[in-house]
Amino acid sequence: MIGRLPLALQILGVAQMLGRGRHGEAAERLEEALRLAGDTGQHRVASQIRCSLAQLAAFAGDEGRCRALAENGIRSATAHDNLGVAAVGSWAIGLLDLGRGQYQDALARLETAAAPVAAVAVLCAADQVEAAVRAGRPERAGKALARLEEWAACTRLPSIRVAALRSRALISSDAEAGGLFAAAADLAATADQPFVRARTELLYGEWLRRGRRRSDARIHLRAAAELFDRVGAAPWAERSRAELRAAGELIVLAESGHELLGRLTPQERQVVRRAAAGATNRTIAAELFLSHRTVAYHLYKAFPKLGITSRAELTRLAVDWSAEQPNWSGDGFGTSGSVVPSTTSCAATVGARRSSTHCPDCAAEETRCP
After folding, report:
1. Domain presence at residue 256
2. Which residue has the higher pLDDT, 4 or 96?
3. Last residue of a domain, one of 74, 93, 123
4. How many CB atoms lie within 10 A of CB 6?
């Protein structure tokens, strides 16, 4: 039964990433899937998962991680003649280049991704249109736009219709583009897809600023920057702020609750979220296929990052535990960045770590440790 979990978790993670734009939860699922795939020797599945993780790294602007994961996945997939996985890896690098403003490179990568596999060609069509227009090659956007609009006509998914509207706007005249962008932004506001909405607001804001409608542009660019920050899409957020500055706005950055979440590894987030909801260590352990001591260790590591010293303080933090900001531990190749503690008894641990304010084995304050 456990042998089926890596693929199931990957499917769930990809659905959260592409279907809902919930990048933080997607990272948690995919990291867990990669760990289980490694433990059960499922190397081909692990390659698929790495390419999906590369997409998340692309959204976040983590170039080193994205390229390492994608290139590893592409090599393994090519060796096994798995064109679909290789295409997803190329798509991830194309997304990275698109977010960093390297439009020529992005277009080349996205065209490579789209060529062999029809499903990937449809999924990356909006990215391909944007890259072509920004690279000054709008004539290379036509086929991708046709695929996207055909998909939009056959689905009820608002996010796909949004992508089709804004992509059509990119290659339209100014007389037509305004209405298309406005329709895309209105529809995006009704969809539960923060990344899709943010990209739409950004493109609309850029178009408005270039049309010297700076006041209107700032409204959409502010919304884009806030949404990109929420999902941890750093290069996209910076692009939005650069446009805001060009539109005459002074940018003041402030720390917020989701930045606290960004300090945690995916597994720490999973553990802490459940602990904040009142779950016991043993309940959390059962849900995450961990030992209760490993759960306690993750809490022990998470508390200082959150600036707290006890479990009770979790509920008092000004944090939305469902906020979407991915962060990763380890190198994405199935290795962890931390060492799980041994089964040393709680009393022995307290004696050895008097400087701590809570016990690593039970995450209670040491004075209350059983």
Report:
1. no
2. 96
3. 123
4. 24
Between 116 and 356, the more confident residue is 116
Residue 104, in any domain of the structure: yes
Listed in sequence order, the DSSP H helices in 263-356 are: 266-276, 281-288, 292-306, 346-352
CA atoms of 186 and 264, how far apart (whole Å): 34
pLDDT at 319 (0 to 100): 60
What token pair was written down for 120? Answer: 């990937």
Residue 254 within a domain? no
Q: What is the span of the domain harbouring residue 355?
A: 263-368
**Phi, then psi, of 158 in degrees rounded to 5:** -60, -35
CATH number for the domain harbouring residue 282: 1.10.10.10
Q: Which residues have a Cβ under 8 Å from the Cβ of 354 and sit 6 or more positions away?
A: 366
What's the mean per-residue pLDDT of the chain?
79
Summarize the confidence of residues 185-204 as an average pLDDT: 92
The answer to whether 168 and 147 are in contact (CB under 8 A) is no
pTM of the model: 0.68
Give the ranges where 171-291 is alpha helix by DSSP (H). 174-188, 194-210, 214-231, 234-246, 257-261, 266-276, 281-288
What is the structure's pLDDT at 153?
Answer: 92
Q: What digits encode the pLDDT tens for the residues 20-79?
A: 767 777 878 888 888 888 778 788 888 888 988 998 889 888 888 999 999 988 888 888
What count of other Cβ atoms lies within 10 Å of the Cβ of residue 43? 11
Task: Identify the bridge partners of residue 39 per DSSP, sorted by sequence position.
Answer: none
* Structural domain contains residue 90: yes
Sign of CA dihedral 96, 98, 103, 108: positive
For residue 365, list its beta bridge partners.
358
Q: How many CA atoms lie within 13 A of 24 on its CB side?
A: 25
Give how many domains the chain has, as a whole number.
2
